[in-house]
Amino acid sequence: MKKIAATLALMVLLVSPAWAHKVCMLSSFEGDSITGEAYFSTGDPIVGSPVTVESNGEEIGQGKTDENGAFSIAIPKGVLSAKVTINAGMGHVAHEDIAREGAPEPSTATEPQAKATAETSVPGVSLEDVKKAVASEIAPVKKMVMDMERAQSKPDMPKILGGIGYIIGIVGAFMWGRSKRV
């Protein structure tokens, strides 16, 4: 009985949130590319891991995460939905299905046409200036969404207690089964 109690105590003490490496990812369309960020549930960025993009079952792009867990992968024009997969190794894989809804379509106009349209719409402001201004305005919102996503993915006390409960239940079932054999 002391061995079982010691084993149970050891198992409870060895449970650590650091062992829970849930892979989280947030990605979206951005023009002719898919950009995103990948991190573990601890908040640590996933560095140097391969990222693949599929559409209609075919691989259409691949890349790697940088030192901040960010990635940007060029995709062909006309892609409306994609499946983004990151493989952080040792079975740590995450998938995300994304759609272009609400994302800006890449410009199909030729560069002179787009420039002429932008120049005639607002004198003195080019299309590139507008793109840069919008990107800088939404950057804090994007960061806030990623931070919220990251905070929600961390294990909280109910999850930790639930995990300990599962371990105690499994050990209890094992002990009950063992007591029936003798």
Outline the structure in words.
- The protein is α+β, with helices and mostly antiparallel strands.
- It is 42% helix and 26% strand.
- The protein has helices at residues 2-14, 111-121, 127-153, 157-181; strands at 23-30, 33-40, 50-55, 58-64, 70-74, 81-87, 93-99.
- Strands 4-3-6-7 form a 4-stranded antiparallel β-sheet, with no helix packed on it. The chain has a 3-stranded antiparallel β-sheet with strand order 1-2-5, with helices on one face.
- It starts with a helix and ends with a helix.
On the 0 to 100 scale, the average pLDDT is: 81
What's the total helix number? 4
- Overall shape: it is elongated
Task: Please summarize the sheet with the most strands.
Answer: 4 strands, antiparallel
What is the end-to-end distance? Answer: 13 Å
User: How much strand?
Assistant: 25-35%
Radius of gyration, CA atoms, in whole angstroms? 24 Å
Strand tally: 7
Brief overview, please?
The chain is built from four helices and seven strands.
